[in-house]
Specification:
alpha/beta, 2-enoyl-CoA Hydratase, Chain A, domain 1, 314 residues, globular, 2 domains
């Protein structure tokens, strides 16, 4: 069953009618295949038309859809031989960030990403993808390990932001984020990052200061959430829709601004409607970018990253 968003109500009504007609056809002698086919065509067209003109706020809702693929789904569908590595060797193992060795196609890589969880228990266990300092220090450890063994780094970003709790601040949240960003920029191996859902604030850039930054077409990437921005500017989160528009959080805006390098197509209706196809699209895009970076030496890769980020906003 698909979970429908508020703006998808007309689509939900059509699809519910189709389900009802199919149930009727299965128990009766009346042939209503033609009516069902007509309704399916209408529903498909309405879905395509709706997703072709999503507002930034609607894209924010799609990026947060609970059925959207998560890190574990990408690992299962895109990578082989995944070997998770745990802990920052200093304090604890943060389950909001997961990483380890894996194989992408014929290429051995280090894959690191945020995991939000997909039910109440797993969301609590993974802290809704909001990492603490030990999560970023784990990411640093894994990136340095990849550099030592000459393995490309692939990061999958999906977080509303770093965990803002007192205990995270006590353990040096800002310093951990800054050092994780520094570790990305210092890598002597290729790094490709993909924003697959939400890319929120420093919690995202800490894993996304890469040679190439990809983004799903209905993902978002910003320095603050639309609700947070609205609360600051208008003193109410009800202006989140206006904030999302003003902040230009969508992949299409960010590609124009040079913040990201490539937009990855999603199935019609979003990645949650066809996760297998979405994961295949992303895997092909990441492999293509890694292929393009093959042959560059360590210093050339560092220079490439520095030039890319220094050029933003110029």
């Amino acid at each position: 069953m698909v979970s429908f968003l508020e703006f998808e109500k007309p689509i939900a009504e059509l699809e519910a009618r189709i389900v009802e007609l199919r149930a009727t056809a299965s128990v009766g002698d009346i042939n209503i295949d033609g009516e069902i086919a007509t309704l399916e065509q209408r529903a498909a067209k309405l879905l395509a038309d709706t997703y072709a003109k999503l507002t930034p706020w609607q894209k924010t809702q799609v990026a947060r859809h609970p059925d959207r693929p998560h890190f574990k789904d990408y690992v299962a569908g895109m990578f082989d031989n995944f070997m998770p590595l745990a802990g920052d060797r200093a304090f604890a193992d943060d389950q909001a960030i997961i990483g380890g060795f894996a194989t992408l196609g014929e290429r051995k890589v280090m894959v690191i990403g945020h995991e939000k969880g997909d039910d109440t228990a797993s969301r609590v266990r993974h802290n809704f993808g909001m990492a603490k300092p030990e999560g970023y220090r784990k990411a640093i450890r894994l990136m340095e390990l990849a550099d030592r063994f000459g393995l490309p780094v692939v990061s999958l970003v999906d977080t509303s932001g770093a965990f803002p709790g007192v205990q995270a601040e006590e353990r040096g949240q800002a310093e951990a984020i800054a050092r994780s960003t520094e570790a990305c920029l210092a890598l002597g191996v290729p790094m490709v990052a993909a924003v697959v859902g939400e890319g929120g604030s420093g919690g995202a850039i800490a894993l996304a200061a890469a040679n190439r930054v990809l983004m799903f077409e209905h993902a978002i990437y910003s320095v603050i959430s639309p609700e947070g921005c609205a609360s600051i500017l208008w003193r109410t989160a009800e202006k989140a829709s206006d904030a999302a528009t003003a902040m230009q959080v969508t992949a299409q805006h960010l590609k124009t601004l040079g913040v990201i390098d490539r937009i990855v197509a999603e199935p019609v209706g979003g990645a949650h409607r066809d996760p297998v196809q979405a994961i295949a699209n992303l895997g092909a895009a990441i492999e293509a970018e890694l292929d393009a970076l093959d042959g560059l030496g360590a210093q050339a890769l560092r220079t490439d990253r520095a030039d890319k980020f220094l050029a933003i906003g110029v």
